[in-house]
């Protein structure tokens, strides 16, 4: 029998192999990421593994796909449910992007700490929003929804196997092999000719809309390895002649703890595609829709920490507007150094980030009474704090990656009011709860505090600080 985590690991590996065949530059990205990780481990030793073992970091991937209808997203949820992955977080890229990016998104991932340690594969999944009149007028919306309703992204056999794997939490080897084959096949780039006129009509609204609604299939849009030093990776990729996007999205690089998520990518490549013309003939063309993303993960922030991060983003925007000739990264780094605690201990003391706590094996013994607060327990060596890895995404960063790889800004009618989409709507659309990432991190932290308190005979959840 093949368990869910084994299915998830095998799916991630096969997807990576398939994507490497389709986008060879991805293999270069993986190779350079591995080199940077090995060099960073040699230089930093155990500190390099503060946010995950080198084996986890090297194997880690997140993918991204795009679908057009709630039904298609519901099917995606069933497939990833088979892999022990649940929808976490709601991301509205319509509001985060300056360009026209008419999608809302969630991320499917494991939520249990042990499952994340076994294989932390995640898939950022975006849903087109045809009901938003800022992007689609009534006539185009009608034609788009008719087109989407007439396609089948995932075969019934795949969905039936997915339901069985989710219910039984495993599959017999023969059925597991069939499930993996069908699941990977569903995300391969199709060779079916694309209606050029229809694709270009949608592309005038948004290249993302064309990529979703202009074709009769879906595909893996990017696959993302994790790297320990993203600045060094950016430099090495550029040295190899790979055209990278202009910036690294997310927090600036600085001397303090790594927080949240930093991402960058190489630019979308022109890939050969068959295009069907109005007279029915087929020509060889090229589309730029897929790119190679890479990420560096940091510590998960609490709502208060996230509010601080968002405030600093706004301040950085304001400073960049006041000083257009200045380096925006340097402006952000200066603000970050001035306002963000420079140590993990201070982050914990100000409740800006999440940590798990563990009784230190070399703590004082012989009847010595422990302190009664978590901060004192840690300061005096009774307890050790380990940062909780940020497992999720930043909408502005995701939108920035999307925008930097688009061929044009698209169009948006700002006189129209946007259609309402939120986490509750998305939960109903896919018939399963979209989980709150903060609640998951808080639960992880609280459980560790409860366990430490039990070990030391203290009630620490009522007197954390």
From TrEMBL:
PANTHER family: 2-OXOADIPATE DIOXYGENASE_DECARBOXYLASE (PTHR39479:SF2), PTHR39479
Leading EC class: oxidoreductase
Name of the protein in question: 2-oxoadipate dioxygenase/decarboxylase
SMART domains found in the cross-reference section: DUF1338
Classification of source organism: Bacteria, Bacillati, Actinomycetota, Actinomycetes, Kitasatosporales
InterPro entries, alphabetized: HGLS, YdcJ_bac-like
Family: Belongs to the 2-oxoadipate dioxygenase/decarboxylase family.
Keyword Iron: yes
Cofactor(s) for this UniProt protein: Fe(2+)
